[in-house]
Amino acid sequence: MSRNIVMTVSYDGTTYSGFQSQPSGNTIQDIVETAIHSLTGEQLRIIGSGRTDAGVHARGQVFNFHTESRIPQERWALAMNTRLPDDIVILEAWEAPEAFHARHSAKRKTYRYTIDRRKFPDVFSRMYAFHHPTPLQVGAMREALTHLIGEHDFTSFTSIQSTQPHHVRTIFEAWLEEDGPLLYLFVTGNGFLYNMVRIIAGTMMWVGEGKLAPADIPAMLAAVDRTCAGPTAMAHGLMLWNVEYPAE
Amino acid sequence: MSRNIVMTVSYDGTTYSGFQSQPSGNTIQDIVETAIHSLTGEQLRIIGSGRTDAGVHARGQVFNFHTESRIPQERWALAMNTRLPDDIVILEAWEAPEAFHARHSAKRKTYRYTIDRRKFPDVFSRMYAFHHPTPLQVGAMREALTHLIGEHDFTSFTSIQSTQPHHVRTIFEAWLEEDGPLLYLFVTGNGFLYNMVRIIAGTMMWVGEGKLAPADIPAMLAAVDRTCAGPTAMAHGLMLWNVEYPAE
User: Fold this and answer.
1) How many helices (H) and strands (E) in chain B?
2) Which residue of B has its CA nearest to A121?
3) ipTM above 0.85 for this complex
4) Do strands B130-131 and B88-96 pair parallel, antiparallel, or not at all (unpaired)?
5) Is any Cβ of chain A less than 8 angstroms from the Cβ of B90?
6) What percent of chain A clears pLDDT 70, i.e. is strictly above it?
7) Cβ density class B7-30: b for 16+ within 10 Å, e for less
8) What is the pLDDT of residues A61-85, one digit of tens each?
9) What domains are defined for chain A?
């Protein structure tokens, strides 16, 4: 009987074309599947909790796959890491019930967007933070975020290239944390549309700059029109923070 | 009359052959001098506070140079940064008295060595931290560091390739800071020999692993013999933290 193996993976997305496999290659999924093939001899497809765009990072992406391999649960992570490049690291691996599905079973997903407010960018976080040296009104951004909480049609906050038939999603929490010059935007929801967190981040920066008011957000959601929201923030500031599943 | 301009520079040393210019090129100094040439038209040499090895980073390296340029002090940093690659950033620039010399005038220099104690390396700090997943006895390391404080002949803690005629240096402070899985070793002194902080870091890791006892350090210093100390820790964990000068 095949086993259902789940892994948490962290990656630096800088040089990759995103998580999900595509014809032009160079994706996290391709590299992980190659490592599994090298380890078990199986040519199989992994199921990610969702895509991440080109250049987006992950602290805790989750995927699963079904394997005939008898490798003990506690040996998977190290065995995979010795076969992966150093910008992709498996943090944990465990065996799940047959029905577990990294995408369908996910209940909550959290993303973090990082803004570096220093006068000049910090070289050590330049690939993981968006540099925004001019002042941001954090209080206004906090107020604007409250309008995104709850169930909404997020058409205004997704790329017009979205292929999803429905754009209603629920944001459970959205908050800002300050750590000296760094400003972190966290957003937790039941699922996210294509570019959704990046458009939220770009819109929040416009609010912080005073180009938009917090009270503009409800009309922006109601418009159901991408042109009504702010810009799509650059990919390198974004990180898939974690994915939560129901306790078994 | 020429002006003496001082700059603080931060760099990610990952892809460079160190700070100081050398025939094979690809050094921080070469790149900075090229940027100055592009800005002022002058072909000049900068004076660094000291070298950093290939792969070593700097949060706050300091250099100075004499220029005929009339660029106002407050414009230098931005003008330089637009001409530098994104892994080299000028943080500050100011005009100093004629006698200021980045190396000779330096009073204290601090280095930081970063150890990542996670089971698997953190992808986002993999270029800035040495991965050491097995346990380290931090208390023993702290005790060992106390034996390095003061004026000593550090011949045992420098590369046999050192070209310095004298190996007596003073360490003012040496301490460890813990931040979750990260362990930082800070060392402040009046000057450092070739590979000195990396050999101190490598020796401290041997103490942490129990391969050496804190009480072994005095004999190691007294031996005046490189083979008596621990290994040279890898370059990528090291960062020149700051350089201090007397108040004018």
Assistant:
1) 5, 10
2) B89
3) yes
4) unpaired
5) yes
6) 100
7) bbbbbbbeebbbbebeeeeebbbb
8) 999 999 999 999 999 999 999 999 9
9) 3-96 (3.30.70.580), 108-244 (3.30.70.660)
